[in-house]
Amino acid sequence: MAGGTKVGGRREGRGWPLLSPAVIVLGIWSVVPLAMTLWYSTRYYNLLDPGRHFFVGLRNYDLLFSDPGSLTAIANSIILVASVLVISLIVGTALALLLNAEFPGRGAARLFAISPFFVMPPVAALIWKNLLLNPLNGLLGWMMGLFGLPVIPWFSTAPMVALIIIVSWEWIPFATLILLTALQSLDSSQIEAARMDGAGPLARLRYIILPHLGRPVAIVVMMETIFLLSIFAEILTTTSGGPGDATTTLTFLVYIRALLDFNVGGASAAGVLAIVLANIVGLFLMRSVARSLNR
Amino acid sequence: MSMRRAVLAVALILGGGAGAVRAARAETLAVAIVNNPDMVTLQKLSPAFTKATGIHLNWVVLPENRLRQRVTMDVATKSGGFDVVMIGPYETPLWARSGWLDKLTNLPASYDLDDVFPTVRDELSYKGALYALPFYAESSVTYYRKDLFKKAGLSMPAHPTYTQIAQFANKLTDKAHGVYGVCLRGLPGMGENMAYITTLVNTFGGRWFNMKWQPQLESPAWHKAISFYVKLLRRDGPPNAASNGFTENLALFAAGKCAMWVDSTIAAGSLYDPSQSTVAKVTGMVDAPVQVTPNGSHWLWAWSFAIPSSSRHEAAAKKFIEWATSKQYIEMVAKDQGWVAVPAGTRKSTYANPAYLAAAPFAPLVAHAVETADTKHPTATPVPYTGIQYVDIPAFDGIGTSVGQDMAGALAGRMSVAQALKRAQRSAKNAIEAAGYGGP
Amino acid sequence: MQRSFLSRLTGLAAWFAALLIAFPIIWMLVTAFKTERAAIAVPPLLIFKPVLGSFAAATAQTGYLSFALNSIIVSLGATLFAVIIAFPAAYAMAFRPGRHTQGLLIWMLSTKMLPPVGALVPVYLIYRDVGLLDTRTGLIILNMLMNLPLVIWMLFSFFKDIPAAILEAALVDGVNTRQQMQHLLLPLAAPGIASTALLSIILAWNESFWSINLTAAHAGTLAAFITRFSQPEGLFWAKLSAASVLAVAPVLLFGSLTQRHLVRGLTFGAVK
């Protein structure tokens, strides 16, 4: 890990031609749609109302902020992201610890445990919605019936819980994969030494293993947050944001405004809000993670 | 530089590839359709059309909610993604007014336009000109299980009221045996729960807007209708009712889980077909329920084919939609699937055909429902709009969607009926004012 | 004695947990071979005569093959371009870092924070005007943009592991930048590039937002293919399962076979 820095220290300027394609492409990508969104957000612009297209100032924002649905959407986004993060980290750690032990068929078991990561979101959502969570014919309902538990019509009575279950299932493997890799790199002699010193399994977990997982956890949090903030297909194929606005996240609110109401102005205002909030979260996260990565 | 050259080469290959594919598809139509059994049949029979004309068809099959959204986006932005779109009487006049659809003139004599039901033709016209050809038309009726009624000692009147429906449902519900008294649409969506709920509100005497375009969603009629709906479905409906749309309820009824179901006439073909339905022999059918006024108690909808003006294959597209909505096509379906499965509700000749009447005992009721649906007078009081289960203004797309979610929220018990109606009123008011109707 | 019992118990628990996680996929696979009536049977049927009818129904007239072809072209194309653009950038940042490198990296990743839905209308209208709507080229560009920041980050972290001394020695021998990248870095970093490309392919394959909203009759990928089953007619679970199996099988196999290589990339080299 000798610093690669020395090679180019004196040639800093020469990096730019190499960097510029990436910087230009990403620059356009991050500026043009944003600028257009900002522009539309100040206009009355409904795709179904082709004749009328005019400046309305901040009216779209006014409507957005006076609509209680916006707050609900922000809250839903936070609930979804936070719950899935917590669940995938806890379950992921437990799974990683289990899969790190020596046992027959370990390679195959690991493959099984991470397989959901490769399943595309609409498929995951549809399989869960129908085969597993359907109250009349679904497998889970039948199993709960065996234990004498009542049938839960998941998508009516607990839609957010159902959504969290589905999304967590998709993202637990990611956390597992990364934490498992971190565990494998843990110096086994250190653990052995602790064991010799009479440290029990819990003490070893608490004082040696968990502290070692700090960086991988930071990575999981950052990567998952990026993807979780734009969760879309799972909502579209299960609840379409409902019932009511029970599962309408900010992302989905923008979608409803833009593609169900065709209200480009309103959608753009909500989009600007989504972008601002995502960037606040993002910058905060990335600063801390980037720092820990470059240590 | 070799890297740049490689990039260019790849770009050329990809671009060239795409171009070549385009050229090969010169006479290929992109057809957007909804996924239902009639459309499966259409796809199955379409090779005959391709053989006769050399025109290939590229189907885009979507669920109803997604179809409406995807097609509207394409047509409204004049993107030209589709050559033929499947739309209904809500979209046709609005889109025709915006100049997004081709006028359909010079239909061949063999097409026999006069054979199409006048109510259906009117719905697909704007300023006297036709803009879409109907594939099938539907109204709504009440389906019920004769065997369950008999067992419970009940009899279904030919013109039931909602009060009676509620009484029957209460008696027929047998959750231990997985039988629910009544199934109704709960899945949010302008074409899903709102189509049904609007007919319910209509017959309870409610309306969407008064003559000044002020939303009326907090009126007593709406309160009564929605409270009735929520109470009835929660007491006697299937679990998860808020996720059940037309297709889900069709599956439930066909599996013998519903004692009654108020929905589209189009379900009759499947329900009376023993290969698709476990209750084919014991299904009965009467008028849609009525409460205080018969106006607007049953809807009128015609899934129709139109040609977006952004299409680049308009002549071929016209050939296709003429073929798909012709008498000859109906005969093809009859030969292939039997008369019971032919596209219903569009042509008088179908209902004059003894073979069809023999195969489809429900036919007269369907024809009657389609012919009597009065889109100009959807409720007891006058309204400034047309449309029974919708309001024919562009803003209704958004209003229908968000009110649909509110109603589903009330049904799922996430908010009270009063709260849901308050939210609905508010969003309807915002949308209608933003669109420039009425105002303060 | 006690230890072996404990380890056996751990093994059992691990297998149980792994199978539990994979269960929905297994169940989907099982259901795909049932008839429609068997698929909704309660209690669920575990013993049944497997049939292939659902696969036939899911592929008949649905154009499955053209959707699959689109998925392959889009995910490979997007990955290729992302790597080509990212490679020199990552090289520059890893071996010639300046004062702005750190900030640049953060900025690049922050572009991933833009919720795609916020850019939908602008992108749709731009695409319409330049004729990219419903084209594979259009999807390749978007997937490339979506994946580029991650690809840069991953390549960057792989490059940082390569001892700079090797490259430096070459410089002394009068080798220019291009030769250095092509003949030294490329072979050295090949495993890293492979794992990066792998992840990018998987992400592009599973990307559904743009594919659902920007395609009509031509460029739809398997993610768009599957949404047609989201609210279908009558009994459809077996058909849905068969279609799902067809949509995820390629990447599931591909990903499983190569999962070892995925890990290093995903952790940005921070976990080894």
Could you describe the 3D structure shown?
The complex is a heterotrimer of chains A (295), B (440) and C (272). Chain A is 72% helix and 2% strand. By secondary structure, chain A is mainly α. In chain A, a hairpin with a 7-residue loop joins strand 1 and strand 2 (53-55). Chain B is α/β, with parallel strands linked by helices. Chain B folds into two domains: 26-138 and 300-359, D-Maltodextrin-Binding Protein, domain 2; 140-298 and 377-434, D-Maltodextrin-Binding Protein, domain 2. Chain B has 18 helices and eleven strands. In chain B, the strands form three sheets. Chain B has a five-stranded mixed beta sheet. Chain B is globular. The longest helix of chain C has 32 residues, at 64-95. Chain C has 272 residues and is mostly helical. The mean pLDDT of chain C is 85. Chain C is built from 13 helices and no strands. At the A-B interface, helix 8 and helix 14 of A face helix 3, helix 17 and helix 18 of B.
Sequence stretches where pLDDT stays below 50 over 5 or more residues of chain B: 10-25
**Most extensive interface between two protein chains, with residue counts:** A-C, 110 and 110 residues
Total strand segments of chain B: 11
Class per helix and strand makeup of chain A? mainly alpha
Order of helices and strands of chain A: HHEEHHHHHHHHHHHHH
The first-level CATH class name of the largest domain in chain B: Alpha Beta
Mean pLDDT of chain A: 85
Architecture of chain A, CATH level 2? Orthogonal Bundle
Structural class of chain B: alpha/beta
Number of helices of chain B: 18
H/E series of chain B: HEHEHEHHEEEEHHEHHHEHEEHHHHHHH
**Biggest beta sheet attributes of chain A:** 2 strands, antiparallel
Helix fraction of chain A? over 70%
Strand order of the largest sheet of chain B: 2-1-3-11-6
Oligomer: heterotrimer
For this structure, the CATH topology of chain A is MetI-like fold
The low-pLDDT segments of chain A are 1-12
Compose a concise summary of this entry.
Chain A has 295 residues and is mostly helical.
What is the topological layout?
The complex is a heterotrimer of chains A (295), B (440) and C (272).
Chain A: H1 5-8, H2 16-40, E1 43-45, E2 53-55, H3 59-66, H4 68-100, H5 106-114, H6 121-132, H7 139-146, H8 154-157, H9 159-184, H10 188-196, H11 201-212, H12 214-229, H13 233-238, H14 250-260, H15 264-293
Antiparallel strand pairs in A: 1-2
Chain B: H1 2-24, E1 28-34, H2 37-53, E2 56-62, H3 64-76, E3 84-87, H4 91-97, H5 118-123, E4 125-126, E5 129-130, E6 133-138, E7 140-145, H6 146-151, H7 162-172, E8 180-183, H8 193-203, H9 220-236, H10 246-254, E9 258-264, H11 267-271, E10 283-287, E11 301-306, H12 314-324, H13 327-337, H14 348-352, H15 354-359, H16 363-372, H17 396-411, H18 417-434
Parallel strand pairs in B: 1-2, 1-3, 8-9
Antiparallel strand pairs in B: 3-11, 4-5, 6-11, 7-9, 7-10
Chain C: H1 2-32, H2 36-39, H3 53-59, H4 64-95, H5 101-110, H6 120-130, H7 136-160, H8 164-172, H9 177-188, H10 190-206, H11 209-214, H12 222-227, H13 237-266
Helix pairs in contact in C: 1-13, 3-13, 4-7, 4-10, 5-7, 7-10, 8-9, 10-13
